[in-house]
Amino acid sequence: MIGYVTLGTNDLKRAAAFYDQIAALLDTPRMMEFDGFIAWGRPGGGAGIGLTRPYDGQPATVGNGVMVALAARDKAHVDEIYRTALANGGTDEGAPGPRGDSGFYAAYFRDPDGNKLNAFFMSFPSSPEGGEG
């Protein structure tokens, strides 16, 4: 089980503003903050996200093939997270839509530092379209 994911940033203030907007849509508050590090999550809840300036003092870089997936409530929530990400300095990596025919609906974007994220919703055949599954 994943406890949390930490992403590097070269501009903590800018990155925090981006993640504050996304976290608000996910009803996930900041749970830890100190010089050079901020984390969003809920104690005892699902995996959280932390942002940090690299400890070694070197510039933060993006991991090729690394992505953080954010669980959305439904398809409309995926769309809202995607729009919010782009409106707050994120860049497009794949507009919201179905991926394959498995009930997987997702949108892909990068944060201002270039870290790749997605917002997704997985519906099941017995679920109403876009409903809870």
Task: Explain the overall architecture.
- The protein is built from 2 helices and 8 strands.
- The longest helix has 14 residues, at 12-25.
- α1 packs antiparallel against α2 (75-87).
- Helix content is 20%, strand content 35%.
- The chain has a single domain (4-53, 66-122), classed as 2,3-Dihydroxybiphenyl 1,2-Dioxygenase, domain 1 (Roll).
- The strands form 2 sheets. A 4-stranded mixed beta sheet has the order 1-4-3-2, covered by helices on one side. Strands 5-8-7-6 form a 4-stranded mixed beta sheet, covered by helices on one side.
- The chain has 133 residues and is an alpha/beta fold.
- The model has no long low-confidence stretch (mean pLDDT 91).
Give a quick account of the main beta sheet: strands, pairing sense, barrel closure: 4 strands, mixed
CATH class: Alpha Beta
Percentage of residues in strands: 35-45%
Oligomer state of the chains in this structure: single chain
